[in-house]
Amino acid sequence: MPAGSIKVQDKHHASENYLNDPYAQTYFTLPMRYHVLLLATVAFIVSAIVWANFAKLEEVTRADGKVIPARQVQVIQNLEGGIVKEMLVREGDKVTEGQVILRLDDTRFNSMYREGLRNQQGMQAKVARLEAEAEGELFVIPDGLPNDQVEKNYRAEKKLYQSRIKSLAANNDVFGKQLEQAEQEISVAKTEYERAKKIYKYARNELNLSRPLVASGSLSKIEILRLERDAFEKDNIARQLASDIKTRISAQQELQHKVTEHEVNFRTEARDELTTTKEEYEQVVEANIALYDRLLRTEVLSPVNGTVKKLHINTVGGVIQPGKEIIEIVPSDDTLLIEAMVRPADIAFLYPNQKAVVRLTAYDFAVYGSLEGRLEHISADTIVNERGESFYLIRVRTDKVDLSKGGESLAIMPGMTAMVDIITGEKSVIDYLLKPIKRAQMSALTER
């Protein structure tokens, strides 16, 4: 059969198939817009499947909770107590760290502190005076004294210093005159002693020259005896004068020792008194530090930034007992702490430092947004609420302490309820869609 006849025959058969196939006739007879719609539908389905396979959604564990103070409520007390002089805050007021929130009457403590300070300043001047006396230095009033009272104390001590130094100098003058007189007496005694030695020498020579005359009869023995007695007396006088000189020198040395001892005693007494005064001064300083601390505590300060929760006393003039509670302050921090309860079935995928989103029920989430935070704490065991339900207690710390809209800050107070979403992972959309099928597949045809 010729080739041309075969082609004609194939076309003939195709035409017959087209005429006999109703779907083919429908397809090729549809308008072009339907063809485009069909292709778009197919493309959309394919795109949706691809998107569902790659698009990720966050897996979250949800819990209900409430805002709690990031730190414990601060209970303010006063060690000494006292009479309320001024109340500067009311319940609900915002306070800052170091702000004066209450004043107590400081009359008694102020009086005690001022008296102690005057005593301290007086002892300080006394210490300076005693140091000058002990070291033998000149007492000088320092420059730049804080007030007139301190300068007055130094001037009084300087007068006392001058009086004591003058008394010491007067005693030294007396001793000096006595030493001078003793020196003169010693000098006179030495002169008399030299004269007595010469007289004795002459008497002794006369005796020696007269003895040979007794043998020749020119001089009697009685005369010799008289000369011997006279020489003995002259020698005795010289010896007495020598002894007297020694006595006077000894007395002079003793007097000189007294002069030195008197000055040493003056310095020693000053040092002893200085030691005692310094000890007393240190005790006074320590006592004044304690008094000043008590005086400062008459102004009750807020230890933290926060909100006044409760005032235990409201009456000006009322008496606060020592150590009793005065004010309770709820601390405010740079972060919020959300305490929430998670069902045991949802606890398996939670661990510290997971991201969390907090939505406060008091503010519309769609309008005011949410707070981001992180999971900080998971309780070690379940707790049971008043309805007998078991929960794990978790705490989430937020990055901010308020919500804002249009530049306006919305305060968040402890006790506000919140919904907490803890982000535990990611899953594709197709996984979410296939999850029921997979669950059914795993449980199908397994019943007894």
Short description:
Belongs to the membrane fusion protein (MFP) (TC 8.A.1) family. This protein has three domains: about 75-100 and about 305-330; about 110-295, Orthogonal Bundle (Helix Hairpins), CATH 1.10.287; about 335-445, Efflux pump adaptor protein, beta barrel domain (Elongation Factor Tu (Ef-tu), domain 3).
Could you tell me how far the N terminus lies from the C terminus, measured between alpha carbons in angstroms? 70 Å
Q: Which oligomeric form is depicted?
A: single chain
Mean pLDDT: 80
Main beta-sheet strand count, sense and barrel state: 6 strands, antiparallel, barrel
The whole-angstrom Rg is: 58 Å
**Runs with pLDDT <50, length 5+?**
1-15
Strand order of the largest sheet: 1-10-14-12-11-17
What does this molecule look like?
It is a single-pass membrane protein. It comes from Sinobacterium caligoides. InterPro entries: Beta-barrel_AprE, HH_AprE-like, MFP, Secretion_HlyD_CS, T1SS_HlyD. Keywords: Cell inner membrane, Cell membrane, Coiled coil, Membrane, Transmembrane, Transmembrane helix, Transport. With about 450 residues, the protein is of the alpha+beta class. The longest helix has about 80 residues, at about 220-295. Helix 4 (about 105-135) packs parallel to helix 5 (about 150-215) and helix 4 (about 105-135) runs antiparallel to helix 6 (about 220-295). The two termini are about 70 Å apart. The protein is rod-shaped and about 200 Å long. It has 8 helices and 17 strands. Strand 15 and strand 16 form a beta hairpin. The model is unreliable at about 1-15 (pLDDT under 50). It has 3 domains: about 75-100 and about 305-330; about 110-295, Helix Hairpins (Orthogonal Bundle), CATH 1.10.287; about 335-445, Efflux pump adaptor protein, beta barrel domain (Elongation Factor Tu (Ef-tu), domain 3, Beta Barrel), CATH 2.40.30.
